[in-house]
Write a structure and sequence with these properties.
The complex is a heterodimer.
Chain A lengths: L1 H21 L3 H22 L10 H32 L13
Helix pairs in contact in A: 1-2, 2-3
Chain B lengths: L1 H26 L4 H25 L2 E4 L10 E4 L1 H26 L7 H16 L4 H20 L4 H32 L4 H7 L4 H17 L9 H7 L2 H11 L1 H12 L7 H24 L3 H17 L8 H32 L10 H4 L1 H15 L5 H16 L2 H26 L13 H16 L4 H8 L2 H10 L4
Antiparallel strand pairs in B: 1-2
Classes of the chains: A mainly alpha, B mainly alpha.
Chain lengths: 102, 487
């Protein structure tokens, strides 16, 4: 089971990495990096159960908590920068930009 | 056991003092500049004191009395010592410069607390020897660096800051996933303990790949340097100086630490790939620098090229002179590049632009500033007696020692290319032409801080012999981490 969850986490990481590379709009890229971080956290939590039947290792959980704090602050900062860009440019690049892929 | 206690105070102060100063500067904007300068002087003293201590033996400090496997240790050897010293010297000069610089711009007092956070993050990073602690310090560093870039209230600066932030989040996540896999494989995070337990399984391979890729993106190695030119050139000039001189070195430092401890047995092909990308970075960055129309963009592309030299370390990592050469090179580049960006800031404020083709008469009207740029440029070219010359010399020596003379060719070619772009700027600056309307020259502090840094970079070569002595060999760096007495 931990293996399945960690593979799912790695899959999320890869899908979101593709999205962030292809993103044309900042908001899309911000969402994508958040999905990426969820993937990493899923891997960390899944791998914490090292031995079946025993208590999970608390260290990766502590790492996830720290990671969440970092992700929240970075997201907040990215959103502030996006808003300042929109205010300055007067154009709405976050939502209305033409998109090539569906 | 004894040295552990005596050394602890300086290492702790190096982190606590800038953090405390940042909070005070944030709450009391009127005294912010004063606090920042007092802190910078104190940091220089503390870093020198710590370097003096670690020259005898590396130190480790168990925070809160918890030992390595459970708690997180701070760790310092001569490599971290010299980097801490150069960090505080560059900060001291840049902050002195910033007081006059900010008075002539619309950038608010937020510059002071954020730059203090940046200083705290850098110090903490150089004192960490724990894979996860390094992740946290890298994040603190990136967030403060991005905030500093965004202080320049121009659309292109904000756009560059956003691109920088996104690139650095992706890089950190790749690094963190690598840490997760490494922890799964070994059950430890401390670099020394990791070095003992790493075995080459597919999991370790994946961790090596993810962590290296993440750090290369954060450290702007070709071809993932795309975020650097914008962020470093559109930022306010003192910020550009801090970013180019210090911040880009931090991810490289982490990679170096990993390379000499847990990944010491990494396959040669990865090392050669990193070296090859470094070589392409040298050529590509220099050619791009030659083609730029704007002075600050030229200096930023020069940073892309100079980062390439650092990555030549990996294919040559087993020779003693390569590690010493790269260390001296980092110090020399930090001082010279900071001087060049500060000089560019003076020119920008004087002219109101930094178009290279319109630099005529600058040599006559801003003599000290241009001298700073020229001396900094001479160091970047790698002419003696600069630290960069010694650094390149040692790298070439390492290349010959190992029989890979191809790296030596790249090092020499990069020097010639950098001479071309530096002389292009000097050529325009020395051109006589129509006089401009009377402008005010750069304030003395702004001109002389830039010149002082350039002079230090030039003189570094004269101090290189004792410096090389204390840096020691690759084996010493790896063994030192493991040999520090556990609590």
């Amino acid at each position: 089971m931990p293996l399945l969850y960690s593979l799912a986490g790695i899959a999320l990481f890869c899908i979101a990495l593709r999205a962030v590379i292809l993103a044309t709009a900042p908001l899309r890229a911000i969402l994508a990096v958040n999905v990426m971080s969820s993937g990493v956290f899923l891997v960390l939590v899944a791998l914490a159960r090292r031995t079946p039947g025993l208590m999970p290792d608390p260290v990766p959980h502590a790492m996830v908590i720290t990671g969440i704090v970092v992700a929240v602050s970075a997201t907040a900062m990215a959103i502030v920068l996006t808003q300042r860009l929109r205010a300055a440019a007067g154009t709405n690049t976050t939502e209305d930009a033409p998109r090539a892929d569906p | 056991m004894n040295p552990v206690e005596t050394g602890a105070t300086w290492a702790i102060w190096l982190i606590v003092s800038p953090l405390a100063a940042a909070l005070i500067a944030f709450l009391l904007p009127r005294v912010a500049a004063g606090i920042a300068l007092v802190n910078a002087v104190f940091m220089t003293t503390a870093a020198l004191a710590l370097l003096d201590q670690v020259t005898e033996a590396p130190r480790c400090f168990a925070l809160g009395g918890w030992g390595a496997p459970l708690g997180i240790d701070l760790y310092a050897d001569t490599l971290s010592g010299v980097l801490l010293v150069v960090t505080s010297v560059v900060f001291l000069a840049t902050l002195l410069y910033s007081r006059s610089y900010l008075a002539r711009t619309a950038i608010g007092p937020l510059f002071w607390p954020i730059s203090l956070f940046l200083h705290a993050a850098l110090n903490a990073l150089f004192l960490s020897a724990d894979a996860f602690n390094l992740y946290v310090t890298l994040e603190l560093l990136s967030l403060s660096a991005v905030a500093l870039v965004a202080l320049a209230d121009e659309t292109r600066a904000v756009a560059a800051a956003l691109r920088y932030l996104l690139a650095s989040i992706v890089a950190s996540l790749a690094y963190l996933l690598g840490v997760a896999l490494l922890y799964h494989a070994t059950g430890v995070l401390d670099l020394a303990a990791l070095a003992e337990r790493v075995t080459w399984t597919p999991t370790t391979w994946a961790a090596l790949g993810l962590m290296t890729a993440g750090l290369a993106l954060k450290g702007a190695l070709f071809p993932v340097h795309f975020w650097l030119p914008g962020a470093h050139s559109y930022a306010p000039s003192p910020v550009s100086a801090l970013l180019s001189a210090l911040v880009v070195k931090a991810p490289f430092y982490v990679l170096l630490r990993l390379w000499y401890a847990p990944f010491v047995g990494a396959p040669e092909v990865v090392a050669n790939l990193l070296g090859l990308l470094g070589a392409v970075a040298i050529v590509w960055g220099s050619v791009q620098a030659l083609r730029q129309e704007r002075l600050k963009l030229l200096i930023a592309y020069s940073t892309v090229a100079q980062i390439g030299y650092l990555f030549l370390l990996f294919p040559l990592a087993q020779t003693r002179s390569a590690l010493q050469g790269v260390t001296v090179f980092i110090l020399g580049h930090a001082l010279a590049k900071a001087a060049m960006f500060l000089a560019a800031g003076n020119i920008y404020q004087y002219l109101g632009h930094d178009r290279i083709r319109d630099l005529r008469r600058v040599a006559r009207e801003l003599p000290v500033t241009l001298a700073a740029f020229a001396v900094g440029g001479v160091c970047i070219m790698g002419l003696p007696p600069s630290g960069n010359f010694i650094g390149k010399w040692l790298l070439i020596e390492a290349a010959f020692e190992q029989g890979d003379w191809g790296w030596a060719v790249i090092i020499v070619a990069g020097g010639l290319l950098s001479a071309a772009y530096v002389f292009r700027v000097l050529g325009h600056a020395f051109t006589l032409g129509k006089k401009r309307a009377e402008g005010t020259g750069a304030p003395a502090t702004m001109a002389w801080t830039a010149f002082g840094l350039a002079l230090l970079a030039l003189m570094l070569g004269l101090a290189a012999a004792p410096l090389i002595d204390i840096i020691g060999s690759p084996v010493a760096v790896a063994v030192a981490i493991a040999a520090v007495p556990a609590q």
